[in-house]
Amino acid sequence: MRVLQVSAELYPLLKTGGLADVAGALPAALRRAGVDVRLLLPGFPAVREAVADWQPVATMTAPWGETAAVLASVWNGSMLYLVDAPALYARPGSPYVDAQGVAYADNHRRFALLGHAAAALAAGLDPHWRAQIVHAHDWHAALAPALIHQARARRGLGGTTATTVFTVHNLSYQGVFPKALFDDLGLPASVFGIHGIEFHGQVSFMKAGLQYADRLTTVSPTYAREIQGHEQGCGLDGLLRTRRDVLSGILNGVDTEVWNPAVDTALARAFDARHLTPRAENKAALQRQFGLEPVAEALLFGVVSRLTEQKGLDLVLAGLPELLARGGQLVVLGSGDAELEAAFRTAAKAHPHAVAVHIGYDETLSHRVFAGTDVTLVPSRFEPCGLTQMYALAYGSLPLVHRVGGLADTVADVTLENLADGSATGFVFDGFDRAAFSAALRRAFALRARKAAWRRVQRTAMEQRFDWDSAAARYVALYRSLLSAEAVDATA
Ligand code: ADP
Fold first, then answer.
1. Which ligand 1 atom is nearest residue 169's CA?
2. Is 17 in the pocket of ligand 1 (CB under 6 A)?
3. Looking at residue 126, what DSSP letter applies?
4. Given ligand 1 and candidates 223, 363, 366, which is best to mutate, with the most ligand atoms within 8 Å of its CB?
């Protein structure tokens, strides 16, 4: 089966979050499962310049008249297609916002073109390879299912027979634009309505994906349920409820080529679940690097995160006095909201030997934080899947998480029952408030006082396998179901 993955990001070339990790790892896992998979990305400089030997495939014209080329090359064993339109994409840095953090005014065009390129590849733009399934990720790629749906309606008149999967990595980023821009999208006027892509008088790319894709997935089973409710539905829960029969949750995996403490060259010392003693050297190195007091016994907490409201780090700030009073230390690696950055900087200044902050994005350092900390804090208000708690598990840093989304699906709390049956892997709190967070902190300190129990939980954590092959097998099953439904359709 021929599957085209459509994404705005791709690890390690261009990454702002977990979406890139998925786009980087899923294709290889699908290939191992026998899928003929290719990727389509916008021609951002980070991708265009990192990959050599781009070959022209075809040109296409955007609905607003701009011409773009579709190029192809091989990267990491995957065939990559690139939408080459320098006027839209040749801007270094973030793929979405300018240096001041302001969303580009032409984002609707930048990502509409991505959708059009995907639809064109499903309709035979590349004479040598035609996608049977287009798998679009997040709002940036969400016009593809809408365009393909339209083209299918014209089947027999040069339309496509491709089917579509749309994966929501985060429902709160929706790609909403003023109605005045609708004409740029190249969709018929009838699509602008409540049963189409209109969202409170505006245009919603996310809704285009949710409305028109043949199958919907999100990145954990719990988040798939949560987004059907008012609290986490971001105004789209009604639509998601009507489409619940085609909506499922498939947990992301961990790319063990990138995240394996036994062979990780970023670390001071390699270690694994059976050889945990050398792990202490990573903690000492991290304390040194961050200028923290080199106390082996201090319980060291870590945060690796975008600093945004979603991540619930206000709870970390609120719980800091308690964490410090109990002799804990904290390292934060992150960037994002100016207010959160300033608050963590202030905390570090006030407690230079116990709190340290690195504002910025640093992939190597993130590995060291997971390998050197005792606990990784992920108190997100909501969390579609969350990768950091899975990396933390793999590196023996016990995750302390809010019971939502993928966090609920991947971390087992240190309850007495879970400790007794050997399934505990971290600290899980219910209810997003300071008291619940503090109680989880206290549980971490209490477990730490029981050294053997801590070790056992750490081993269990490191032995968890969230592998991409299992995730890929679920996607393959989904693709198969689509192809057989399509075959039935064709004979009807
Ligand atoms: P989200 O996609 O919402 O940001 P995830 O947990 O799914 O959250 O993925 C975040 C990814 O970004 C992880 O790979 C994490 O290690 C990485 N990350 C986040 N902030 C930083 C940072 N400041 N430096 C390095 N890596 C980071």
1. 2
2. yes
3. S
4. 366
Query: For the segment 340-387, what is each residue's pLDDT rounded down to a tens digit?
Result: 999 999 999 999 999 999 999 999 999 999 999 999 999 999 999 999
Cβ–ligand 1 distance for 24 under 6 Å, the answer no
7-19 pLDDT, tens digit each: 999 999 999 988 9
Query: What is the DSSP secondary-structure string of 281-338?
Result: HHHHHHHHHHT----TTSPEEEEEEEESGGGTHHHHHHHHHHHHHTT-EEEEEEEE-H
**Which is the closest atom of ligand 1 to the Cα of 389?**
6
The CA distance from 122 to 371, in Å, is 43
Please state, in angstroms and rounded to a whole number, the distance separating the CA atoms of residues 206 and 191: 14
Which residue stretches of 135-246 are H helix?
Answer: 143-153, 205-212, 221-226, 237-242
Please classify residue 59 by burial: count the beta carbons closer than 10 Å to its beta carbon, then call 0-12 exposed, 13-18 middle and 19+ buried: exposed
pTM of the model: 0.94
**Taking the alpha carbons of 189, 190, 193, 196 in that order, is the dihedral positive or negative?**
negative
Distance CA 46, CA 49 (A): 6
